[in-house]
Design goal:
Layout (H helix, E strand, L loop, with lengths): L2 H18 L8 E2 L8 E3 L1 H9 L3 H13 L4 E7 L3 E6 L1 H12 L13 E4 L13 H17 L4 E5 L6 H13 L9 H17 L2 H15 L2 H25 L5 E2 L10 H9 L4 E2 L5 E3 L10 E4 L7 H16 L3 E4 L6 H13 L6 E4 L5 E3 L14 H19 L8 H18 L7 E3 L1 H4 L7 H17 L15 H11 L1 H10 L4 H20 L7 H24 L9
Parallel strand pairs: 5-6, 5-11, 6-7, 11-12, 13-14
Antiparallel strand pairs: 1-2, 2-4, 3-4, 8-9, 9-10
The chain binds arginine.
Arginine (ARG) binds next to α11.
């Protein structure tokens, strides 16, 4: 909140207290709608009911009070009882100084850390394109937290344990043609797919796979070596992808990390009567009728651990190690019931728990293709990224002279990867997402290239104006376009906070889009370089702040923006 907002609230609240004898909070928010002033409040509408007076009369009390606040040009009543406040250009332009401070990370806060669990691919398979959702959403939520001064712990909880390793080992045993370390990730996938094809004809294979995993869990040396090679091969190929996406983790702690941390929890669960014997010797947890949740298995009848067993140990370990304020699991909506069960079990164990959130996202699809061809054959992330980049390359060629760059390859990478990332982060993660290349690579729409182009345009203005780092100045009169852009720039901090609070990065993305639109309108309607001295200085300062907000925001969203384009 800006000083001016606080002052308005203060005087409005005091006037209401004096007139009606009640204490209340009145918030003035920025308004971007034409004709609604610069700051507006609807407080009179709800207060009216409380004090049993017509809303217009209550609004008048508020308007009269704020009219005398320094920096207010005019306070007026509109509609059923809104109070719209027009600010003096000088105080509005002066506030930009504060907006500038949101371009650098905030000072560290003392809150307990937030743990973010994202990306978490399953080992022995290439990263499917759908994995990019968790990866990008998780990293951008992480970046938002960090930018606002929170400490975070990011963890790649890779799926490196479980029956699939037994299956892969069986497949390798039968059909392997060279030492495991010579295998590429694609070749491993072929083995895995073959296992499933053959298992359809020969059911005993599944059993063999299960047994093989049991052996692995018991510590079989040969299988252990096989397993660690497979993990190495997978992670190596992931590293390249993560670098391309500007994603990184504080820890890679896969499911195997909890191998020796599960037994004590099994004991505790049994002792507390939370884990009960179910069918065929399995251990299960039941939930109260009203939750309508089916019982969850925590240990198989043959004593093998499962995904859930490892997640219980994971939660314990994270709580003991970092004493977090919250743990966010950025995982597909398909696991919704699973996480309800996990959180339900943790509650029954009566541990002292942080906030636990399944930060879910909807399904992804492309308007022009299928996500998977046949069983096991997924649309691979690196292929989709390559396609995006080659589409961007053709676009750059098509545009010819209209695009200035000394590095077309670098620009194509930035645009192509950015297009996919932006496509994800501009949609509400809770909904199913449809991707359309035309839209994602458009220079005019809500897309990465538009954001990148707008940033380059602002930089080009600064270069032409020979203004490297222009200071923000104030002016006594603002044009319509300047006024709108100013208000938008003032909203950067508030937007970051809203995106953080709800873990919704699309709020930031769509804000940046609005800034781009407002900047381009301003650029097209107001002279910058040829304006009178005072105005030129202010406009250059505002252009520079726009560029900085676009770049800072983009990087928080894992995007990159060019200086020329
Ligand atoms: N590897 C899992 C999958 O791809 C997601 C892991 C999510 N994290 C967790 N702690 N369960 O389905």
């Amino acid at each position: 909140m800006f000083d001016l907002q606080k002052k308005l609230s203060g005087s409005a609240e005091a006037a209401i207290a004096k007139k009606f004898g009640i204490s209340t909070t009145i918030h003035f928010g920025f308004s971007l709608e034409e004709g609604r002033g610069d700051l507006t409040t609807s407080a009179a509408l709800s207060l009216a009911k409380q004090v049993k007076q017509p809303p217009q009369d209550v609004a008048k009390v508020i308007a009269d009070a704020v009219q005398s606040v320094e920096g207010v040009e005019e306070a007026s009543i509109a509609g059923p009882g809104f109070v719209n406040v027009m600010l003096a250009s000088a105080s509005l332009s002066e506030a930009l100084q504060i907006a500038e401070s949101f371009c650098v990370p905030a000072t560290k806060r003392k809150d307990p850390p937030v743990i973010l669990d994202y990306s978490h691919p399953n080992i022995a398979k290439p990263l499917g394109v759908h994995h990019v959702l968790s990866t990008i959403l998780g990293q951008s939520i992480n970046n938002i937290y960090k930018h606002l001064g929170y400490s975070t712990v990011s963890i790649n909880h890779i799926g490196d344990w479980g029956t699939q390793f037994g299956k892969l080992a069986v497949a390798f045993d039968r059909w392997g043609t060279k030492p495991i370390e010579k295998y590429s990730l694609d070749e491993l996938l072929t083995l895995y797919v073959r296992f499933h094809d053959e298992a359809e004809k020969d059911a005993s294979l599944e059993d063999e796979g299960r047994k093989s995993f049991q052996q692995l869990e018991k510590g079989d040396k040969k299988l252990r070596k096989f397993w660690s090679e497979v993990v190495r091969i997978t992670m190596q190929s992931m590293d390249g992808l993560y670098a391309r996406l500007h994603v990184s983790f504080d820890y890679t702690q896969g499911e195997s990390f909890y191998e020796d941390k599960m037994a004590p929890i099994i004991e505790e669960g049994k002792r507390k009567g939370v884990f009960k014997e179910g069918k065929e010797g399995a251990l299960i947890v039941e939930f109260p009728e009203e939750t309508k949740m089916p019982p969850a298995i925590v240990l198989k009848g043959d004593g093998s651990t499962i995904y859930m067993t490892r997640d219980l140990a994971t939660a314990r370990y994270r709580i003991d190690t970092w004493h977090p304020g919250a743990i966010l699991y950025v995982v597909d909506v398909a696991q919704q019931m699973y996480f309800k069960q996990l959180f339900g079990i943790l509650a029954q164990l009566k541990w002292d728990l942080p906030v636990l959130e399944h930060t879910l996202y909807g399904r992804m699809s492309f308007s022009d293709r299928k996500m998977s061809t046949r069983k096991g054959n997924i649309l691979k992330l690196d292929e989709v990224l390559d396609e995006a980049v080659s589409r961007a390359e053709s676009l750059i060629q098509e545009r010819g002279d209209k695009i200035q760059t000394d590095d077309p390859k670098g620009l194509a990478e930035m645009m192509g990867v950015g297009a996919l990332v932006y496509g994800i982060l501009s949609q509400n993660r809770k909904m199913d997402m449809v991707f359309d290349w035309k839209k994602m690579l458009s220079f005019e729409g809500n897309s990465a290239p538009y954001l990148q182009y707008t940033h380059a345009r602002a930089q080009s203005v600064l270069r032409k104006g020979e203004a490297k780092d222009p200071k923000l100045t104030t002016v006594t009169s603002l044009s319509t376009a300047e006024r709108r852009l100013t208000k938008l720039l003032l909203l950067f901090g508030q937007t970051l906070e809203e995106a953080r609070k709800d873990h919704l990065p699309h709020k930031l993305t769509n804000y940046l889009y609005e800034v781009c639109q407002a900047f381009n309108t301003f650029y097209n309607s107001d002279e910058i370089l040829t304006a009178p001295t005072k105005s030129r200085a202010f406009r250059l300062g505002m252009t520079s702040l726009t560029a900085r907000i676009l770049k800072t925001g983009a990087e928080i969203l894992t995007l990159r923006v060019p200086d020329r384009m």
